[in-house]
Design a protein that fits this description.
The protein is an alpha/beta fold. The protein has a single domain, classed as TIM Barrel (Alpha-Beta Barrel), CATH 3.20.20.70. Helix content is 37%, strand content 18%. It is built from nine helices and nine strands. A four-stranded parallel β-sheet has the order 6-7-8-9, covered by helices on one side. Strands 3-4-5 form a three-stranded parallel β-sheet. Helix 1 runs parallel beside helix 5 and helix 7 (140-147) crosses helix 8 (162-174). The radius of gyration is 17 Å and the shape is globular.
């Protein structure tokens, strides 16, 4: 049996209960009170963890970067992607308040970093694990930088080939981090049920001897 990974005294393994991560992402719209509502709703839904995204817009996109098709359909098409992302940042000061609120609610706080500065920032906050987006699977330097923090890594695979996943696993293990959970992820927003390809989890589990899970881009949060 593959090794059990422990995150804040929660055991994740093949014989353990499902570890349920609720995706808050940027749905707080930069508003800390909405972020807290998302935390509360995630807890009510039975989630073990809620995950946000940590970035500075200027370090993620260029001035002229166009919006994705799904973004054009849900936001002002006249607005640039850079301006859109600026509105979706959480201020550095707000993290302490949201993390404290998560602790009060009894739910784990995680966030996805998008560059090295973000990794160091989250590590400094004492986060017990990292969740990496699919885009980073093909960035061995970034993977190794995160891996050297010595914490468990949830890694989405998106549109990566099995060979690319293999390279990513080798990069992470190459610096001594064995705490890897690969997530099958269909890169489509929203993703269709018929495209879920759940058996990819079995393929990756057997090929790389790692724990696996599923990252769903289908469900959108609602507040009440």
């Amino acid at each position: 049996m593959r090794d059990i990974i422990n995150i804040n005294n929660i055991s994740i393994g093949e014989e353990s209960p499902v570890f349920f991560i609720a995706e808050a992402g940027v749905n707080h719209n930069g508003d800390i009170e909405i972020a807290k509502q998302l935390v509360k709703k995630a807890k009510q839904c039975g989630a073990d963890c809620i995950k946000f995204q940590t970035f500075k817009a200027e370090r993620v996109v260029t001035e002229g970067a166009p919006k994705a098709k799904y973004q054009l359909g849900t936001t002002d098409p006249k607005e640039s992607q850079l301006d859109m992302l600026r509105k979706l940042e959480m201020s550095p000061e707000s993290y302490h308040e949201v993390i404290s609120y998560c602790q009060d609610q009894g739910i784990l706080f995680l966030s996805t970093p998008y560059n090295i500065e973000d990794v160091d920032f989250l590590d400094g906050l004492g986060l017990p694990a990292f969740k990496l987006a699919s885009i980073h699977l093909a960035e061995p330097y970034f993977l190794q930088y995160v891996a050297r923090k010595g914490k468990p890594m949830f890694v989405s695979t998106g549109m990566a080939t099995l060979a690319e996943v293999d390279q990513a696993i080798r990069a992470i293990r190459g610096v001594g981090n064995q705490q890897i959970i690969l997530l099958q992820c269909t890169t489509n927003y929203p993703s269709r049920v018929e495209d879920a390809n759940l058996r990819a989890m079995e393929t990756m589990r057997d090929a790389f001897d790692v724990l696996v899970g599923y990252s769903d881009n289908k469900v959108k949060p609602t507040l009440s």
